[in-house]
Amino acid sequence: MSPTSTLPTVTRASSEVLAEAAKGTDSTFQLLYFPLHGRGELVRNLLAYSGAHWEELAVDWPVQKPKTPFQVAPVVYEHTASGSVLELAESNAIERYLSRKYNLLGSNIWEENLVNQYYHNAEGLIQAFALRVVGAAPEARIDEANRFYAEVLSKFVSIHEDHLKQNGDNGHYVGNSTTLADLKVVQTLDRILLLVPKGGVPVPISKELTPSLWKVKEAVERNASYASWKKSQRSQDLNANTKARFQF
Ligand SMILES: N[C@@H](CCC(=O)N[C@@H](CS)C(=O)NCC(=O)O)C(=O)O
C-alpha cells in the first residue's frame, strides 16, 4: 500500500487528557519529513531504536505546510492505543519527547542534565559542520573540510573521548545504557562520515583513532531494530538523497 499524504485529524482536548494519552508506549507514529536526513534523521533513528511502529507520510508539501503547527517539517503524529492523535512539532522537542517516552534521558535529573549537555555539545558540532563544510563553495570544500577536521572535530574528539573514559569507556555517555546523548553523537558523526568531499581525505573518526566514540557507535548499532532500519532501502535512499542534495 502506498503511503498517504493526508494528515491525520489531531485530537483536541485538555492538557490533562492529552498528558494521559501521551503516557502510552504502544503508540504508532507517522512522520512527515522530506526524503532527506536533515532534521528528520534523529527522529527516525529514535523511532527505530525504540522499536516503535512507525511509517512516513508521503510529502505533498504545498498542501501539508499550512496545516502543520509551524509550517515546517518534521512533524510526528502519534496514534495512541486509546485512539488519540497527538501532534508533535519541532525536531528537538520531538526528540526529547520520544526519549522521555522510551527512557532515553537517563535515570534521574542529574543524568538528564548530562544527556542534555552532550546533546547540545554535539549540536554545536553539527552546526559548525553545516556552516563550514556543507555550506562551503564547491571549490573550497576540501580545504574547509580539512580545516574543520583539524580545528573543530579534533577538539570535539579529544574532549569527548575524555568524558567517555570518565564514564568507564563503556560505550555510553551517561550510566550504562544508551541515551539520547549517544544517539545524537552517533547521528552527528554519521553525518560527518557521510558527507565527505569528493577527493578529500578520510574523516579522522574510526575504531583506531577514536576508540571510545566508536564504542558508542557500536553500542547503538547493536540494537536490532536500529540496525535493521539502517540497512533498509529507505535509509540507503536517504543517504543518497542527502549526498545529492548537498552535492557531495
Ligand atoms: N526549528 C525547526 C526547523 C524546521 C525546518 O526549518 N524545516 C525545514 C526543513 S529542514 C522546512 O520545513 N522547510 C520547508 C519550508 O520551510 O517550507 C525544527 O527543528 O524542527
List the SSEs and their pairings.
Elements: H1 15-21, E1 28-32, H2 41-49, E2 53-56, H3 61-64, E3 75-79, E4 85-89, H4 91-101, H5 109-134, H6 141-166, H7 180-194, H8 211-221, H9 224-231, H10 233-245
Parallel strand pairs: 1-2
Antiparallel strand pairs: 1-3, 3-4
Helix pairs in contact: 2-4, 2-7, 2-9, 5-6, 5-7, 7-8
Glutathione binds at residues 38-39, 65, 72-74, 90-92.
Domain GST N-terminal: 27-106
GO molecular function: glutathione transferase activity
Protein name: Glutathione S-transferase
Task: From the structure above, extract its key features.
single chain; about 250 residues; alpha+beta; Glutaredoxin; Glutathione S-transferase Yfyf (Class Pi), Chain A, domain 2; 2 domains; 4-stranded mixed sheet; 10 helices; about 50% helix; globular; binds glutathione; Glutathione-S-Trfase_C-like; GST_superfamily
In short:
This protein is an alpha+beta fold and 248 residues long.
Approximate strand percentage: 5-15%
Report the major sheet: 4 strands, mixed
Compute the average pLDDT: 97
Uncertain residue ranges: none
Order of helices and strands: HEHEHEEHHHHHHH
Number of strands: 4
Please, could you describe this protein's structure?
The protein is built from ten helices and four strands, in the order αβαβαββααααααα. It is of the alpha+beta class. The chain has two domains: 87 residues, Glutaredoxin, CATH 3.40.30; 137 residues, Up-down Bundle (Glutathione S-transferase Yfyf (Class Pi), Chain A, domain 2). It has a four-stranded mixed beta sheet with strand order 2-1-3-4. Helix 2 links the parallel strand 1 and strand 2. Helix 2 packs across helix 9, helix 5 packs antiparallel against helix 6 and helix 7 packs across helix 8. The radius of gyration is 19 Å and the shape is globular. Bound molecules: glutathione. The site of glutathione has 9 residues, from helix 4. Glutathione (GSH) binds next to helix 4.
